[in-house]
Amino acid sequence: MLFAGFVSGLLGIGSGILKVLGMDLIMNLPIKVSTTTSNFMIGVTADTSSILYFKARLYRLYFITFYYLRNFSWFKDWN
Questions:
Q1: For residues 40 and 51, what is the distance between their CA atoms, to the nearest angstrom?
Q2: Is residue 79 part of a domain?
Q3: For 44, how many CA atoms within 13 A lie in the half-sphere containing its CB?
Q4: pLDDT-derived band at 76, boundaries 50, 70, 90
Q5: By C-alpha distance, which of 76, 77, 69, 4 is closest to 34?
Q6: From CA 78, how far away is CA 30, in angstroms rounded?
Q7: Residue 32 counted as domain residue
Q8: What's the domain range around 69?
Q9: Model-level pTM greater than 0.70?
């Protein structure tokens, strides 16, 4: 997985495809398990980086509010 992260950073692509191929071909895991594990890794990385940004106060509250309102505005149409 370290190699997948290095190559994806070097090429500027997401490492999900490399991780899934590595887990499928080298570790002989089923595709469903490989994709679920890759999604879990991405989620843990995103959570960790957002916690670090909040601790370092490197965020802008108005960007977060705009993003939240834009992405979750479809809830009002559920009635």
A1: 16
A2: no
A3: 6
A4: low
A5: 4
A6: 37
A7: yes
A8: 2-74
A9: no
- pLDDT tens per residue, range 30-44: 999 999 998 888 888
The CA-to-CA distance between both ends of the chain, in Å, stands at: 45
Residue 53 — left, alpha, or beta (φ > 0 → left; ψ -120 to 50 → alpha)?
A: alpha
Assess if residue 30 is contained within a domain.
yes
4/32 Cα distance (integer angstroms)? 19
Domain tally, the chain: 1
- Tokens found for residue 34: 């490989």
CA distances from 13 to 10, 31, 79 (A): 8, 20, 40
Count the residues in the chain.
Answer: 79
